[in-house]
Specification:
This protein is an alpha+beta fold and 740 residues long. It folds into four domains: 200 residues, HUPs (Rossmann fold); 74 residues, Methionyl-trna Synthetase, domain 2 (Beta Complex), CATH 2.170.220; 153 residues, Orthogonal Bundle (Isoleucyl-tRNA Synthetase, Domain 1); 188 residues, Nucleic acid-binding proteins (OB fold (Dihydrolipoamide Acetyltransferase, E2P)). Strands 25, 26, 28, 29, 30, 31 and 33 form a seven-stranded antiparallel beta sheet that branches. A five-stranded antiparallel beta sheet has the order 20-19-18-21-24. A four-stranded parallel beta sheet has the order 3-2-1-14, with helices on both faces. Helix 2 packs across helix 3.
């Protein structure tokens, strides 16, 4: 038996949690925690509401309320939503409490004493009209790396780039919409650079981490770590425990990660064992897992380990199985999008285990995944209900009706074919769940259900009962063995329905107490069976929700994609990562394009080559120069690759050729956000399937091995001229690379 500490990302208490939170960072740790309890491990699961920082104050100002009122209201709403989702914490707490303040102050003072904190004047945005310094989320602008608009000033949600004041293009104050200036303010800094070598060694030892986590972390480390300010000019947050600093607070990115430790300490006090937390934080045999979304990776793979190294004597993260994003209508699910995707709304209409199943089978573990109501309906009805639920009911109801009890087996264990399949599934299940591969884990469970249905049909118990009732009983015993195995292995994913099936089999103890060994244990022949009821029911999506599923193909039709040829490429005089390029797309005058390609291409590699341009993008000034479009490039860095490559046509077609896949695209000007709603990937193909996600795609035999595809839910089309010219890349890169 081992100890496992599961640390769950803290959702901001500025609105109700939504499906993206659950799929990204709340459901995976619950599945993992339940699995570890099944195998007999001692599990501590901690987290709570992040109640500080600007998301809370922004919401409070919009509502005309106070930060503490907003934070406590949404803490209660989200705590209930998490409980209603069946997600179990040892403690779900909040950061705005005395215990958290005390632990943060102790760590602040300890790091200050060790000279890991120091004072320094730093640049910050200042709004002269509002006459105040502006925290990160009070400033928005355009990301200088990927061009995403409405990006907050601390980090880009799209590409993950973090910023310092002055980095954003066209920054604006969210209050008065004026352009803030950069002024200096005295702040405390964490001497993160002091931990560079130790963190590099730490990361190098984590060869089992997910590629996206390694890639994000490597990008932070490659140029050396820089010290970071840990205080801000705000009134809402953890106060600085020093006189003269009353107008500032400890910033949320520093104090929130300390919440994992403070929550463990609070839990230990609550259960009357104040030193219990030390068994989880000081015993080197205890493994720490951090379940987060990909936008939180550097804070958990770099900054929090750095703080822990500075404190000394506490366990560093063992694994950080960060998930990608659950996408909705082409964009990341967010509280600001609205719609009936928040958890209270979803659970008012649909069964919790149906929601848990869908988010498990569609989990964005290594790639962004798309949520649509149509796909939700399809997977629940055609998989959960028709395969698993139907198998449960047909086995239990047929046995109860004809025998009233569990029949005897045809040997001590049952049919070798059935037992071998159960054990094979259990081996795969253990391999998947022990390595946090939950999507493959639930797929293994569903494959066993499909095997069970095939076995039931092949044995034809409805005919056998008339010919040889004793033999029919043995066949049904085999089927009930599969039902028992399924209910136990499905429990971490769908606990409520699994417990119902478990009780239908006559068990009094819970699945958790029975443990994973129950998968292969012998059924108690002769025990009575009660009449079962179906545990899952088909879902029907209301018309308004079906209509709310916008098609990515509709967004794609807004973009006018043209083959262009690069006439010239010059260094941008004020930005070391940008080129100023002239591109011929068959117009009287070449287009001027500003592109961040200097890290990937030389001028010589660019001039003369053909590429693909979004030609109807609204012109925008980037670092002082007008850009009249956007070149398309594939980027696999977020999925563990190291390549950024321009898309190119596979044939030497004339400049100006439309790469519209045969669809009638618009020539009207579009905003960058319209194009960002389109999901494109670069992938190899196998037959008529994309290798990156196995989606069916219509392509001719002469199509290249690597293509660019536009994704729309369960559909995909190849980016082409509608004939025999396709968009591809020069060299091999990881399947599923995104296009930007």
């Amino acid at each position: 038996m081992s100890k496992i500490c599961i640390n769950i990302a803290w959702p901001y208490a500025n609105g109700p949690i939504h499906l993206g939170h659950v799929a990204g960072s709340l459901l995976p740790p619950d599945i993992f925690g339940r699995y570890n309890r099944l195998i007999g491990n001692e599990v501590l699961v901690v987290g709570g509401s992040d109640q500080h920082g600007t998301p809370i104050t922004v919401t409070a100002e919009k509502e005309g309320s106070t930060p503490d009122a907003v934070a406590d209201r949404y803490h209660k709403i989200n705590k209930k939503a998490i409980e209603d989702m069946g997600i179990q914490y040892s403690l779900f707490t909040k950061t705005n409490c005395a215990n958290h303040f005390e632990v943060v102050h102790n760590i602040f003072n300890d790091l200050l004493k060790k000279d890991y904190l120091y004072e320094k004047l730093t640049d910050q945005y200042y709004c002269e009209k509002c006459q105040k310094f502006l925290p990160d989320r009070y400033v928005e602008g355009t990301c200088p790396k990927c061009g995403k608009e409405d990006t907050r000033s601390d980090q880009c949600d799209k590409c993950g780039t973090t910023f310092e004041p002055g980095d954003l293009i066209k920054p604006r104050c969210i209050h008065c919409k004026g352009e803030p200036v950069v002024k200096q303010s005295n702040q405390f800094f964490l001497r993160l650079s002091a931990f560079n070598d130790q963190l590099t060694d730490f990361i190098d030892s984590k060869d089992y981490w997910r590629p996206n986590v390694k890639a994000f972390t490597a990008n932070w480390l490659k140029d050396g770590l820089h010290d970071r300010a840990i205080t801000r000019d705000m009134s809402w947050g953890v106060p600085i425990p020093l006189p003269g600093w009353e107008d500032k607070v400890i910033y949320v990115w520093f104090e929130a990660v300390i919440g994992y430790l403070s929550a463990s300490i609070e839990y230990s006090k609550n259960v009357g064992k104040p030193d219990l937390w030390e068994e989880y934080w000081k015993d080197p045999n205890t493994k720490h897992y951090y379940f987060i979304g990909k936008d939180n990776i550097p804070f958990h793979s770099i900054i929090w380990p750095g703080i822990l190294i500075g404190i000394g004597g506490l366990n560093l993260p063992y694994d950080i199985p960060a998930n990608e994003y659950l996408m909705f209508k082409g964009g990341k699910l967010s509280k600001s999008r609205g719609g009936a995707i928040d958890i209270p709304s979803v659970l008012s209409k649909y069964d919790v285990d149906a929601v848990r199943y869908y988010l498990s089978i569609n989990m964005p573990d290594t790639h962004d995944s798309d949520f649509t109501w149509e796909d939700f309906q399809t997977k629940v009805n055609n998989e959960l209900v028709s395969a698993l639920g139907n198998y449960y009911h047909r086995c239990l109801s047929f046995t109860q009706k004809n025998f009233g009890k569990i029949p005897g087996a045809d040997s001590k264990e049952g049919s070798k074919e059935v037992i071998d399949m159960i054990r094979l599934t259990l081996d795969e299940y253990n391999e998947c769940l022990s390595h946090c591969d939950f999507k493959k884990g639930i797929k293994a469970v569903m494959e066993l259900a499909r095997f069970g249905n095939r076995y039931f049909d092949s044995m034809k118990p409805w005919a056998l009962i008339k010919e040889n009732k004793e033999q029919c009983g043995k066949v049904l015993n085999n089927n009930l063995m599969i039902v028992k195995a399924l209910s136990v292995m499905a429990w971490p994913f769908m606990p409520r329905s699994s417990e119902r099936i478990w009780k239908d089999l006559g068990y009094k103890e819970s699945i958790e107490k029975s443990g994973l060994d129950a998968v292969t244990s012998k059924l108690p022949a002769g025990r009575g069976l009660s009449e079962p009821m179906p545990v899952y029911k088909k879902v029907e999506i209301p018309k308004e929700e079906e209509e709310d599923d916008a098609s990515a193909f509709a967004d794609f039709k807004k973009a006018d994609l043209r083959v262009g040829q690069i006439v010239s490429a010059d260094n941008h005089p004020d930005a070391e990562k940008l080129f100023l390029m002239k591109i011929d797309i068959g117009e009287a005058v070449p287009r001027q394009i500003v592109a961040g390609l200097r890290a990937y291409y030389s001028k010589e590699q660019l001039v003369g080559r053909k590429m693909i341009l979004v030609s109807n993008l609204k012109p925008a000034k980037l670092r002082g120069y007008m850009s009249e479009g956007m070149v398309l490039a594939a980027d696999d860095e977020a999925i563990g690759g190291k390549s950024v490559q321009l898309l190119r046509p596979t044939k030497d077609v004339p400049v100006g050729t439309k790469m519209n896949s045969g669809l009638e695209n618009s020539s009207a000007q579009i905003e960058i956000k319209d194009f960002q709603n389109v999901k494109m990937v670069v992938s190899k193909t196998s037959g008529k399937k994309l290798l990156c996600n196995s989606l069916e795609i219509e392509i001719p035999k002469e199509a290249p091995k690597v293509i660019t595809a536009v994704i729309d839910g369960d559909s995909a089309i190849a980016l082409s001229d509608g004939k025999d010219c396709f968009a591809t890349v020069d060299n091999e890169m990881k399947d599923g690379a995104g296009v930007r």
